[in-house]
């Protein structure tokens, strides 16, 4: 069983590993940060000593080097990356996207809402992490096999926080 932050859309406590949803994390970069002259880099979690062993967590991290848009095979991807690289809109779809980007970029309320959302997500994640640390510490206290200082070291909570549980 695996437990992850719910707001990340990962597994909830008690769910089976097989219930993981496929996730893609996209990095859109102007320059080739890996210096291997590729337009797209695709990563999955692999075992360090034996790269043939995949973790199987369905989490992919793709890096798109938008200055290399002309080397991308997929037409839609190439079109998006060309927009990032040149800010030129050569199709109706990209013109519409550009209009939306400009609308939100110029709207102070939308900018503030975006920044507030990011801050709110950070606060929620910290709260969930603290709750998980407290849950672990409570379970260790209930077992009665460890000292408060050992539980503090394991859980990351202070001895005072553990005593208050």
DSSP helical segment count = 5
β-sheet strand percentage: 5-15%
Terminal Cα separation, in Å? 25 Å
Largest sheet: 3 strands, mixed
Assembly state of the chains shown: single chain
**Overall SS class:** mainly alpha
Radius of gyration: 22 Å
3D shape = elongated
- Uncertain segments are 1-9
| Count of DSSP strands | 3
State the helical fraction: 40-55%
What's the arrangement of strands in the largest beta sheet? 1-3-2
Give the H and E element order.
Answer: EEEHHHHH
* Average pLDDT number: 85
Question: What's this, in brief?
Answer:
Helices cover 47% and strands 12% of the residues. The protein has helices at residues 75-86, 92-106, 108-143, 148-155, 159-164; strands at 23-29, 40-44, 59-65. The protein has a three-stranded mixed beta sheet with strand order 1-3-2, with no helix packed on it.
Please outline the helices and strands.
Elements: E1 23-29, E2 40-44, E3 59-65, H1 75-86, H2 92-106, H3 108-143, H4 148-155, H5 159-164
Parallel strand pairs: 1-3
Antiparallel strand pairs: 2-3
What does this structure look like?
With 165 residues, this protein is mostly helical. The chain is built from five helices and three strands; from the N terminus they run E-E-E-H-H-H-H-H. The chain has a three-stranded mixed beta sheet, with no helix packed on it. The longest helix has 36 residues. The radius of gyration is 22 Å and the shape is elongated. The N terminus is likely disordered.
List keywords for this structure.
single chain, mainly alpha, 3 strands
């Amino acid at each position: 069983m695996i437990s992850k932050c719910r707001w990340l859309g990962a597994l909830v406590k008690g769910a089976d590993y097989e219930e993981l949803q496929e996730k893609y994390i996209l990095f859109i970069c102007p320059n080739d940060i890996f210096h291997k002259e590729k337009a797209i880099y695709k990563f999955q979690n692999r075992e360090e000593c034996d790269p043939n062993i995949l973790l199987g967590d369905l989490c992919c991290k793709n890096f798109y080097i938008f200055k290399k848009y002309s080397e991308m095979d997929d037409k839609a991807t190439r079109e998006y990356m060309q927009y990032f690289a040149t800010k030129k809109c050569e199709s109706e779809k990209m013109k519409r996207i550009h209009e939306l980007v400009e609308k939100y970029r110029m709207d102070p309320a939308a900018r503030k809402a975006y920044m507030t959302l990011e801050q709110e997500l950070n606060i929620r994640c910290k709260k969930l992490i603290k709750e998980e640390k407290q849950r672990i510490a409570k379970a260790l206290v209930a077992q009665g096999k460890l000292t408060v200082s050992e539980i503090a070291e394991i859980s990351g909570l202070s001895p005072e926080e553990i005593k208050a549980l």
